Queue: 4 jobs
Job 1
Amino acid sequence: MTGAVLTPLIVDALGEFFRLGTLSEVFVNGLSKAALYAMIASGLTLVFGLLGVLNFAHGSFTMLGAYLGGLVMVVLVGSATGDLARVLFFLVGTLFVFAAIGALGGAVEVGLIRQLYDRPPIYQILLTFGLALVLDEAARIVVSFYGIQPITDWRAALGTKPAFMVENLSVAGLSVSPLALFQIVFGTVTIGAVWLFLTRTRYGMVVRAGSEDDEMTAALGIDVNRVFTTVFALGSAIAGVAGMLLMWDPVWGASLPLAHETLLPAFVVVIVGGLGTFRGTVVAAGLVGMVDATMTWWFQNAITFTGLPEMMIFLVLVLTLIVRPQGLFGVEEVGGH
Amino acid sequence: MSLLELDGVETYYGESHILEGVDLEVEEGEVVALMGRNGVGKTTTLRSILQLTPPREGSIRYRGEELVGKETHEVADAGVGWIPEDRRMFSQLTVEENVRIAVPKGSDVQAGLDLAWDAFPDLEEIRDRDAGDLSGGQQQMLAIARGLVGENDLLLVDEPSEGLAPLIVEAVHDALEAVAGETTILLVEQNLPMALDLADRFYVLDHGVVVDSGDADEVSTDSERLRRHLSA
Amino acid sequence: MAISSPTDPPGEGGDADEAGTDPPDDADPATPDEDSIAAASGREWWRRYLREHTAHALVVAAFALYPFLYALLAASPLGTEVETLLPRVETMVAVFYFGLFAMSFDFVSGYTGYLSFGHAIFYGTGAYFVVLAANGQIPLLAPGTPFMLLLLLAGLLAVVIALAIGALSFRLSGVYFAMITLGFAQVAYVFVRGWDYVSENPRDGAAVSTEVHPGGFDVGVPGVDALNLAIGRLTGDSVELLFVELGGTEVSYYMVGLVVLVCYLAMQRLIHSPFGTVLLAIRENEERAEAVGYDPFRFKLAAFAISGFFAAIAGGLFAGFRRSVAPDNSMYFLVTGDALLASIIGGFGTLAGPLYGRLFDETVREFLSKRGSGGGLLPYLREHLPASVIEADLVGGLTVGGAIETFLNGHASLYIGVIFVLFVLYVPNGLLGTVRDRLGGTVAKQLPEYLDRYRRD
């Protein structure tokens, strides 16, 4: 690609990009990616905010949720199942995955992470790193045992999507993906529910307080350890449900690499938004989603460099850490002990 | 039986031997001042009682029950409240939420709020403001309100006047005086006039042990007895 | 949990009340003992050097004898057992070069306390540099450029990268430092995965072209033909030593091992110098180190650059031996993860520990390898267990053989992961770290005294 060829290409593409049709497509795409990123990352930020643990196994929980959700759908859905029924089954499956992965998270917290409270936080990170190895390989064993290809998307699970989500619709001259809309609605509802939980319930208030100052919270008579377990379970559960949502998306799909395919972007979103702030994570998810969608369009239409969106996302991470390391909404100095 | 008894308490920060055998007692209804130079272990004493920095040796008995080995929230549940240095507001919560969270489990939240607003009507006016946006004085009042609402029989108060303007310090003094009427207080305070005015008795801490104690009216702020241990 | 500020120095942030077990403190390297004072005149420096390095000499001797030992035992009646349990010589070559990478990781992360999560970028730089240079794709470098020079240049390139990344990253600490280095490394990973200059299919990496560079890579004194031996499984030189024929793999073992040894000794010298002492001071309490007058930023940057240098050499050795490189096995963050794994199992802050950690890792992996080449559990059991046992039903249609196949073969990661978690929980100082704790100092220091005790009795 020489400069002489590049310039007219870029100019053309710019013209193409700044058309209403393109912009709205990219916008909707960006919103759906934002919804996914918000779901992938919000559990991570809750856990970091309260426990101070950067959970390296977070991606593994997403991957397990994808497979578990896929399993539920493959079992429940037959070729004759109608579209509406499939959506209903999906929602039911969500509750199941939420409970199952949440329980796993809770068990991990009580059994493993709690042992390391008295040690420097690095050990908790290391522990979750090792846990990710174990979970990923255990999943590989199960998946291979049942003859499912471990590194490609689970075809059967993808096939349980309702028919109307497979093709794009044409609405007012724009190409709209019903799957993207579903993701936007689902993501908004989930994030909204977590938001309400944090701001309108007493327990959520306790979580917010504990995230800021766990010593003071304990000194007010609150069993912070139990809150730790609950939040870790909640964070894991959200990750699992995110996985189930990704299971239907042909860009992601249920596969073993999903674990680190989602972990790295989750790190980016959480850091850019501000480690530990829920609000920051949501906003950052929006930003990263838009960057991803924009760069994907540019990759598909002008700059032929595979991995352009991915690279841009990591550049956003690096730039944030250089310019404003505490993130968009991060607090500079918290707690005064 | 005293409300609070410390017996040979030794506490470390990492490998630093901060408290080297602290003995003190607080009777119910008293206000006891804990004084000493910077760094002698006054805050550490309070943290030890709360098991935030658990002692390695010694015993701490509250109403006869041993506190060492308990979890912090258990100590708080038993009726020990903390108004820490730097106030430690939950800056991302509102004033009202900061009070709400201090209401013990099972108690009526509204009654707790009413109690706080009665005592501090200025706080009620700013109940929806984020606690992080408050001035130092307002934060201190909020911290005391939290202590009040928590149904505590013993309040551990750490340097309440620190960093506050003299006019505000007076208000803090009045607030604490009102609170002292209903609760027992162990007060760490560098501001000698305020400490000696509020307190019934005092202890002086130096090099991690108690070096002097007595009734508050035995001494005045410029007495030689205190100056020995408190001047730099 | 109070979130520490991005710029908090490590070891601070109000952790004073935690009964923290820090990564192990290296025994103070700089206290002179009577012997060294007496020998300070220089007359007996070599005697002192040998005494201080007895342990190292023993280890080197053990490694040197390994291929012979392996061959001897493999030919003995215990042959199949030996092949099953002990790693092949080819695997040991990987232990060496990846061990060097892991040691370089420990050099910065274990000794300064700053976790370099993007360390794979240096390893990948070294590997890609060697492959591209061999294919004539590096301007100004002919494909025939001596391998040793390539390693040096790759190392220097890594130093430049390290200085650039470090200048931006060391303003941060803790999680933030880890994340920014990870970010840089991932940018490099994605770049190299899509850069078609590298090869036709950059996603799969690049291989050393047999047309342009048919011969093996020479390790030795550049230019002096007689003092060079080529490495590579197939391209390595064969050497006749006494009555033994050493093939390409064995020669590679010794030459790669030699380079790794030299690099290790260099890093060790740095650790046991005033420079290393400052690093340790920074790890314990950065603010205090600054107050005493050192500029932590410069020292951290230097440590980072040095570690990058050796990491790139490790990558170069890897590419030189395997004659190919792929983004996923050189630049991806899981590669750094493997170094982290090796460091925890071997012992953080011990420098040599990660090598042993990697040895452990590769041994278990080969033991449970799916292909069973070099001896593995399944082929061994297949050979020695009667068919009736293997075909016996365990649970619902699953035979014993099937169970071994499903749960054991090729799934070493699971068990290594479990061991890793157990180490984090119960053996946080790793194998070598725990040995050092028991001995009360580095093995090198304690061994002579230990042996003295037996001599005097």
Note: The CA atoms of residues 103 and 109 of chain B lie 6 Å apart.
Job 2
Amino acid sequence: MYIAKDLVAASAAPMVLGILADGESYGYAILARVRVLSGGHIEWTDGLLYPLLHRLEEQGLVEATWGTAENGRKRKYYRITPRGRDSLAEHRRQWRAVTDALRETWGDVKGAAAWSARLAEGMAT
Amino acid sequence: MVRAPRGRDGNVTTPDDEAGFEAQVAQWREFILGRRGVSAADADELESHLRDQAADLQASGLAPDEAFLVAVKRLGAQDEISREFARVHSDRLWKQLVLSGAREVDKGRPDRTRREIWIVVGLAALAALAIKLPSLVGLYMNDQFEFYARNASLFFLPSLAAYFAWKRRASGRTVGVLVASFVAGGILANAYPFASEGQTELLTALHLPIALWLVVGLAYVGGEWRSHPGRMDFIRFTGEWVIYMSLIALGGGVFTGITVGAFSLFGVDAFAFADEWLLPCGAMGAAIVAAWLVEAKQGIIENLAPVLTKIFTPLFAALLAALVVTIPLTWTGKPMDRDALIVLDLVLVLVLGLALYAISARDASDAPGLFDRLQFALVVTALVVDAFVLAGILGRIGEYGFTANRVAALGENLILLANLAWTAWLALGFLRRRRTLAATGRWQTSYVPVYLLWAVAVVALFPPIFSFA
């Protein structure tokens, strides 16, 4: 399934924050997690995750530390901050409002169709 | 793709493979570090990602060089990544270079970029030659000063317009308008029988460059003269061009001094050479080179200009406040002195330039801050000073009658007054959060044609009206 670029971009920050809310992680692992969580539907350009992480860091939503990986290489780990958790909660409220509204809209379309069908039926009899 | 040799079980990599992989990673790292906006720490982080990815791919059976290629592909285009980095870290000095590079039309066309250098050199040489052409027919600079003063802008502005017409791929129609404008400028500067040492001749020498500079603006925006962002870009370009010209002039002055000094050591007088060739030709060529520098190196100055505005806005605000107090205190009852009026006008033009530049360099979505209050104060005090100047000019006209100079000064100050008054009004709205900065910017760009019309009127109509005096 193809997911529009705008949608992917809009969901990127809340998704990263959500993944980091589960615990400290690093870029490569975050991307792997996104792939698993979305069932492979969400495809990020790997390199663009890092500018996003830096933006979140600048906004104080995550903090980063340099550490050493199991294989001895340098690796930058990211951790969510209390402000990041607040932001995540806000994101969730907004996304819920959007998805609820969408569900209502699409539900209404079905409801209206059923209603007009019934009306037509009533007029015919 | 050439497959790398594999070990017996198809999965073991040879030391050769490893070395090749390392070399590829090192090369990749060098490339990404060469991008603006990417710091060494960013490269470390990306490299760590690349290695993780490549290791996973190798574990699933790919040869090191294949794994490298796939990992690099997944990481994405380097320019896209570096642009994003630059956006996030906007404090990194070179951000605009990257951002402007992205909207650069000639991106990925190195032949055009390479050709640009030669076109710039050619046009600069053309401008340098143009100023020496009149001497072929016996018009020398030291005894035909008026001729050179009237025509100064005609030597280099056509080359400048040609550069932008080429760069922006101007349409045939635009080129036609440009050529017609410069021909008209040449006729107006030279066909009128100006009286010797008259005011109208001086006014032509002062106003023709303004009119023709705005004609260059038409080439700069590629014929899209209605576009307000285009006009704002040209305003910005003008400021940056002035900065570059000043820098080149400083260097040129030192160079000339050293040239003359060095030759005098050997008993050769190079002063005539410097005076007749080096300075005039150098200045003309520099005008083209400065324009090219502004185009090529936008980022550096775009970061310098806001700093300069920030430094000079408070200083000019203080100067104007002092003038507002001093002028009434020292008023003797007689009309203001002519030289005083000229100096005050210069100050006002500089203030308008500062205000313009501050607007053009600001992010239009920013909220008003201390600097905007300061700028508002600057514009309001400038308004008061302009009112004094207008009163002074009207006083002189009442006392000594109309002359070309006084009418020109009157018109210019009225134009300035109208601009400043509306700017102040818009700035007040911005401070009270009723308007955005964009409104002020739009007002300034809408006002540009007024300058053009006035400059053309002074050049075309004033000489006959004031009988070329």
Note: The radius of gyration of chain A is 21 Å.
Job 3
Amino acid sequence: MPLNELPIDVEPLAGAMPAFCASVPAAELRGLCEQARARKARLVALWGSDETQRSAGYALHLALGFPSGLLWVSVPLSRENPHYPGIADIYPAANRMQRATADLLGIIPSADADRRKWLRHGAWPEGSFPLRKTVESGARFAQVPDRYPFVPVEGEGVHEIPVGPVHAGTIEPGHFRFSIVGEKILRLEERLGYKHKGIEKRFEQMTLEEGAKLAGRVSGDSTVAYAWAYAMAVEGATGTEPPPRALGLRGILLELERIANHLGDLGYLGNDVALSFGFFQFWRLKEDLLRTQAQLFGHRYLMDAIAPGGVAKDLPRAAGESLIAHLAKIEREVATLKSIYDEHAGAQDRFIMTGQVTPELAERMGLTGLAARASGIAHDLRVDYPIPPYQQLDPRAASHTRGDVAARVALRFDEVFESMRLVQALVQQLPPGDTRAPVVAAAAGARGLGWVEGWRGEVLIALETAGANRIHRLHPHDPSWQNWPLLEHAVHGNIVPDFPLINKSFNLSYSGVDL
Amino acid sequence: MYQLLKQIAKTGIVSEPAPLPDAALRALEQRLGQVILKHFGRALAIRHVDAGSCNGCELEIHAMNSPYYNLERLGIKFVASPRHADMLLVTGPVSRNMETALRRTWEATPDPKLVVAIGDCGCTGGVFGESYASCGRVSNVIPVDVAVPGCPPTPVSILQGILTAITPGRK
């Protein structure tokens, strides 16, 4: 069948979200991407796979987001010469994904200028590709010296501040290279990959059942989003239908995760502008919510609450009512705190026009998720593709256009209130019945996609099964891939002391992109 | 300003009592003498190092600073540099890309120093294990005094681990 938006033949892909597959020769990749870009499709993910054991060389994969659904494009590449024309000039967000794919699989973008390594520091040597099937799971490489060519900035009075990987606060490790004049930031260059711990290789040693636990730990703060995306992918690949009650419960869990993270961020955003009152108040409310979650679902962060086929724990009627009562109490306090934040001149002075990403820049660079909605790009999977349980709830996507720290603060407040409304509706409309269906055995070579709007943005899991219920290839994709490069732009012209505030307003994942 | 003060007054003090140390968490015999421990007890400076975690343990370390746990009332605080620290609080399986940074952070911490490994990954390598990219447990890279299991361990467990590390006692 043809895709609505492009004149190419696609195969529909079974699963909860609307999705299609297409195979495209490498020579046609750039043409396809140019047309997709012209039709406002966004690049959701890019990854590679080793197909040599199926005597088919390698493959490059792209996930493109169209209004009618997600298009999974596969580009077969030869065993001897796995090169393809790079697309980072068409989709800037592809740059780091292409470099990661080159490090892990030796699939090389031939046209692009930026061929620097990304995930490979010193843990394996140049010319070795740990995600290739010929590399045993027990393989070890000797540490090699790690040199990385940062882009130098020169001129009178310019100097550099190197920060990290071990930061001053309780933050994940990464390196930031600031080039500054006086207090002003001229350029920021990020170097990530410090947390690369071989997650994708690990998946390939697991069964579909075992993979659920690992998926929930790709990025611990988004464990529900990843677990749901993983379950959705497995269910699609195996033809398993989760019961309606399980879908309602997944919606409740996902919105609770969004509320908890936003409460924590709102506290830290207050803290970063010296309003420590905000930190203590919001973290008190967050702790209240975490304790309620532990009580109702058995885990403070809801880890392992979602499993392929359904959910691990039901929410009885009385527990649902106590959850609603509890959220109502938190909501009243958040409303009070919002008016305190709104009227606090000192805090607003720091928030407004700090770390701005204009809608034009966001569009050009492919900003996504929460940060994109603060810069006028109103994409939200819950709204764009309202599958159950969101179908009947009419979820509203929050949107602001100024793209500064203040907009990202305001957006979080809006989303906390909307998620509370959704949880309440989901609890009240929870369908009766089972909470888990048995997972059907998978055929080898079956594909499945999970695509979920986590609190940070869209989380994607692309799965292809191997024989005996095992995983041939699994790529988990975090929205932080798209958003990290925008942080480099957001800090231009700002002063160094505002960097922690700007960084926190994005609150991007390191572990989710280092994998 | 009135609303802010009203909110503070309305909230009151929510801090809960601190947990007691738990000798079961010890990975090594206490190496520090009574005198040093007496001083550490009321003025402990901690440097947190994320050596490759999923960010789950970090959430609970943040939560320890919330008013319910109120770490600073116990004289315990997080510092910005290992050179100011008495204790390293290390999370994650140690990724091979963080191995050197963790070693250097440990070397930069002045003696006498303590190391507390946090979470299932810090204790055993957890779900990530050992691989081309992961060194596994923290004690594979630096000596660990106390190891706190959990995925992630609760703030009370982490606090218990910290207090165990600065208490006299045998393994």
Note: Chain A has two domains: 11-109, 199-514.
Job 4
Amino acid sequence: MDQLLQHLLNGLLLGATYSLLGIGLTLVFGLMNVVNFAHGEFYTLGAYAAFAALTLASVHFFLAIPLAIAAGAAAGAICERVLLRPLRGQSIDTVMLVMIGVWITMQNAELLGWGGVAKSVPTPFSTQPLVLGPVSVAPLRVFVFVVSGGLILGAHLLLARTRLGRAMRATFQDRETAALMGVSIERIHTVTFAFGAGLAAAAGALLGPVFLLYPSMGDLASLKAFSVVILGGLGNFAGAALGGIVLGVAEELGAGYVSSGYRDAVGFLMIVAVLLLRPSGLFARAERVG
Amino acid sequence: MSRAIRALSVALAVVFALGAPTAQAQDAVKVGVIQPLSGPVAASGNYVRMGAEIARDWINGKGGVLGRRIELLIEDNKSDPKEAATAAEKLIVRDKVPVIMGAWGSSMTLAAMPKLEEYGVPMVVETSSAATITKRGNPWIFRISPPSEMEALGLEKYLKEFGIKQADFLAVNTDWGRGSVTAFGDLLKKSGASVGAVEFMEQSATDMNAQITKVKAGSADTLFLTTSVEQITLVLKQAQEQRLTRKVITTGGSSSPSQLIKQAGAAAEGTYHILFFLPWFPEAMPDGKLAKAFVDEWAKRGHPFEGLTEGFRGHDGVLTAVEGIRVAGKADPKAVQEALWKVNVMGLNGPIKFEKDGPAGKESGQSKPSIFIVQVKDGKIALPAFAAKK
């Protein structure tokens, strides 16, 4: 029983990180129809930006995270303005190829800039675990969990409740009509992509200290983010949030009770099942098609 | 757009001009090196490269080999077996190297091996531990690192002091990790101890909490941990978060304990590490003077101290490869392969001399490296009391 509780707690904490990775991608993918292969690189960028702020500029840990988010959003805005804007109206495949190029370029730039040796990010949190009855958890992971939840909720509210969010949704539903209503289409595209990149960078800045930093760390993050998006349904915020938790718990229980050698396989088997049975995602509501 | 194309062609022309071999480079004797310089196990690969460069400079400082300088052609296998095979083919076909040193991970080495056989080029294996590397009947393989079985034998004499009754295993899901679990598991069973949970993790995995929870539920007293320093760091930190109290022994010699102390902090306290080079006690090494000189040179170059336990492999590997060329008298792959059987040099780990291993008629070379155990104690590296006595 104790073991099960610890597994569930581990799964929840891991799942929250997957959710955070997934929401930025589902936003860009679902709203803009851009398959952002560079999502993991914005994650890496966020992690290294936080590391640089902490070690080179020696700012406080809590300030380093917003700085990293800003860096990620800025990089996202530049990427959208320079690469994606000229491709507006091109097929999704063309955009996909460009994003693969961005992925490779950014990863190699990180390798060039930081070297291949893993770096560890110092945090002000104690490494002594918080003991809650039969289970224990690191304070840092609780912090990451809470901030992730806040970011997911904040992003959802921004999209659902604000003028900007409404303009975003309108633009990607019908750009001509939105433009006629006075929405600045170009600006909305840039802001949306920057928003997605900023969320990825937030995930990097939060998870970098939990794990280790190395230039190819984004590959695993991308893989998990895509899994979460498929599980939760394209563009579905609540779906991504729940999909992440489901994936995290499934992996954890699969590793704990089936075999740790097939840990990732458990997650992917679930995705295959979802694609077969509920192709629009686990949490998709009945929607108008076409 | 046309301006962009013009800029691109200029850039390409510059790249080609820089890449063109100069007359001087053609005179040098080439030695191929394949290491993971990026990807999940990049730290180790980079340290090996640094050690290899020191060996190169020392050899060149003493006049090189066959009256020529040596030049290292270093390829990145990106911690990926597929890339290791590609790198081997590139070094052999395009650069025509007479000998290669590589490729750190067992899975990477195994992937490169068919290329060695196909083209007939010998490779000095500096790190890989999977037994199967020298058992496959590939006569182009010369390994200077101990296979896991040999490591297990090195531990055997201390088994009583460790007092292991039951041990769990947590290993990277590669040929190295799986081979190590078999080798150490067999040793434990032979000595009357039992094997508890056997858990694996993917090479790029970062969250090992599930495996740790499972291990914690068992009743073993010891945890054997086989993976790269990056994952060892994460496992130790996550084990601390879950209050796992086990005697931890890392195998494979790639644990860089000084890096663990730096990155895992208190979580590394008390852990034991099987190593093949002890930079903390260079004078205790088989050739103390050589070891001291290497440690000093490493520091002079500003390389991180924690890389030494890995970096020595690069030195010994290049030393062995170049000695092969010297004995052969020419930089020809077939001649170097035959000459490697006659090599007898003193490396940082100890004497390097190959014995036959694997199926008759197609044996690979295997040396008998020295094996050491250290412990992290009060945030420092110490020889365990029982090992210091001997």
Note: The CA atoms of residues 137 and 359 of chain B lie 5 Å apart.
